[in-house]
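Re: that backbone. Tokens:
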């Protein structure tokens, strides 16, 4: 095939695939995509996201729509977790790209992975791309390499990126932020020399680079010049209208301002203070007056300290204080924008930790008192489960009698699974299957349930004894009169085996159900409580039903055989009688229907419908005629006794 032929074939295939991707309404999808792109260009992010979601209803297989939503989510500062979900959807196999490209989505996804500490996944995505370098891809790779501690590769990439993207201020900031706490390294020094020599390129875009570069400048005069230059530039580039606290620290370090002035700039009440700034302030204050002032500030501190433990410029938590002690902390260790641990404290000690799917209350940290998850609550045995997902980190600056504490994630703790909670539980409360107001509370001993109670709107409804993890005996008070009229028995697997009902509370069973392992069942009624069942209904494993009752006149047994829901025959005193369906009413006649069957049937059904209970046995004189009526399994049987 010629090149032209192959091109034509490929074009036809593209059209066919595109038609498959268009789904129900390709024209509407194209219009939505065009509007979404236009709204993105105009910076109207919410409208662009709305248009993209609308377009996806027309063409669910177009990858552009979730990608647009991810772009809008990132631009509006929504949690990174939301953007990750959308961009991952756009990269799903089988989707088609119309205006954007899969490589652009992969780079965005890699950037989000790098920001949320998923460094290896970010590198895997970038390694799979066969495209020329881009600033976003290089930056995501640089952040991932630093995050993984692959310093030699990170420094080599930083050097290349400075030449490849000479006007992009993000690369020198990433390098300086990551390296300023590390020991000097020849490779890092070479990169830092390049950065320092080119600061003039970026000072308009990111003037704080002048301060970040100070530790890497060898010449003291140049250091001071950078600090003065930054402080002379004003605060037009800062949203909070104040100089960066870093400028006060650098100015104090090199003698440009005194300690009192530095403390005035750094310790601004009501504004969050970065922990690294707090620590460096304590290290630089040398005079007794300054250290006393800082100590007084710490002892009465009522504000917020922000955390950035890996110095990547993305906050991973904050701690609020009162009287210098933590009262609340919000921790996001994976930096996805969703708080993983919301910690409430008493006078320092955590009293409650709120997780995305649960709330954990403590007696004395780390011993858990209760766990609430959705509409379930576990109450644990005292000092049974120690679960400490966060730690108190002492920051001893030598200023106050006790250390200044921060609260940070402690690392890996076991997941609070049902099995772990059961092993330490005293009780578990959850909604009962009774509608609103029903609550079941299960009591545990040594990790196994031993009893339970169900309350409905506060009153006792049922209580059960458990064995082997299942309820084996239950008493139920359905009518709320304080007497449990129903008794249920289950086998060791929790399968129902029998039900006994005593409605009038005289300790005599009115009704009983029995279920056998082979699938057969038996129901029996003793309405007069004389110890003999007037009616018994049995069902065998293949579905054949048998109804037996005592004839109200003769006292002899009557048996009805039912197959596939329809009566087949009646046995009475050794005689087999026919069973005939009434031609006009939902009723079966034992023997041939009477001549006035319609009138009789209407009267019987009215009487049956007024009766209470599952089974009704009636002997009723209607116009001088005795009629026997029996109800069982939804069927009504009638017999004229005066033929």
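Recovered sequence:
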């Amino acid at each position: 095939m010629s090149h032209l032929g192959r091109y034509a074939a490929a074009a036809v295939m593209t059209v066919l695939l595109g038609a498959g991707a268009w789904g129900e309404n390709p024209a509407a999808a194209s219009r939505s995509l065009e509007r979404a792109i236009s709204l993105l260009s105009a910076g109207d992010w919410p409208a662009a996201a709305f248009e993209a979601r609308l377009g996806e209803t027309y063409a669910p297989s177009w990858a552009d729509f979730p990608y647009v939503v991810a772009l809008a989510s990132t631009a509006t500062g929504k949690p990174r977790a939301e953007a990750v979900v959308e961009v991952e959807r756009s990269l799903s196999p089988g989707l088609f790209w119309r205006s954007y490209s899969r490589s652009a989505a992969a780079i965005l996804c890699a950037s989000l992975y790098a920001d949320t500490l998923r460094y290896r996944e970010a590198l895997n995505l970038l390694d799979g791309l066969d495209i020329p370098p881009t600033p976003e891809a290089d930056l995501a790779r640089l952040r991932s390499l630093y995050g993984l501690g692959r310093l030699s590769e990170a420094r080599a990439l930083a050097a290349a990126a400075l030449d490849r993207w000479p006007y992009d201020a993000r690369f020198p900031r990433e390098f300086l932020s990551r390296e300023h706490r590390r020991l000097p390294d020849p490779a890092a020094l070479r990169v830092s020399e390049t950065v320092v020599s080119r600061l003039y390129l970026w000072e308009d875009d990111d003037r704080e680079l002048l301060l970040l570069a100070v530790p890497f400048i060898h010449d003291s005069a140049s250091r001071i010049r950078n600090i003065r230059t930054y402080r002379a530039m004003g605060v037009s580039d800062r949203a909070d209208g104040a100089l960066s606290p870093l400028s006060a620290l650098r100015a104090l370090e090199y003698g440009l301002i005194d300690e009192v002035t530095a403390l005035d700039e750094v310790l601004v009440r009501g504004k969050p203070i970065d922990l690294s700034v707090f620590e460096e302030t304590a290290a630089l204050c040398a005079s007794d007056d300054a250290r006393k002032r800082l100590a007084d500030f710490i002892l009465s501190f009522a504000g917020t300290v922000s955390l950035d433990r890996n110095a990547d410029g993305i906050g991973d938590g904050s701690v609020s204080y009162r009287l210098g002690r933590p009262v609340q902390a919000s921790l996001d260790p994976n930096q996805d924008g969703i708080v993983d641990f919301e910690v409430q404290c008493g006078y320092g000690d955590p009293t409650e930790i709120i997780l995305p799917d649960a709330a954990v209350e403590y007696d004395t940290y780390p011993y858990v008192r209760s766990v609430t998850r959705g509409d379930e609550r576990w109450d644990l045995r005292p000092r049974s489960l120690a679960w400490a997902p966060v730690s108190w980190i002492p920051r001893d600056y030598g200023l106050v009698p006790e250390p200044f504490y921060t609260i940070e994630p402690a690392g890996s703790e076991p997941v609070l699974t049902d099995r772990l909670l059961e092993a330490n539980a005293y009780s578990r409360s959850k909604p009962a299957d009774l509608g609103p107001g029903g609550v079941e509370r299960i009591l545990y001993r040594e990790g196994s349930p031993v009893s339970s109670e169900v309350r409905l709107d506060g009153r006792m409804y049922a209580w059960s004894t458990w064995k082997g993890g299942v309820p084996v005996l239950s008493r139920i008070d359905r009518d709320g009169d304080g007497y449990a009229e129903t008794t249920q028995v289950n086998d060791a697997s929790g399968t129902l085996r029998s039900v006994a009902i005593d409605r009038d509370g005289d300790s005599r069973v009115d009704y009983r159900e029995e279920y056998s392992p082979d699938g057969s069942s038996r129901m029996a009624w003793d309405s007069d409580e004389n110890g003999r069942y007037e009616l018994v209904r049995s069902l065998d494993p293949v579905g054949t039903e048998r109804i037996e009752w005592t004839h109200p006149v003769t006292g002899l047994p009557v048996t009805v055989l039912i197959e596939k829901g329809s009566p087949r025959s009646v046995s009475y005193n050794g005689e087999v009688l026919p069973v005939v369906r009434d031609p006009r009413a939902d009723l079966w006649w034992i023997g041939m229907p009477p001549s006035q069957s319609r009138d009789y049937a209407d009267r019987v059904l009215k009487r049956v419908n007024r009766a209470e209970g599952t089974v009704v046995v009636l002997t009723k004189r209607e116009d001088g005629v005795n009629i026997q009526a029996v109800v069982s399994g939804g069927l009504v049987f009638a017999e004229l006794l005066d033929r």
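The first strand starts at residue 273 and ends at 274. The radius of gyration is 39 Å.
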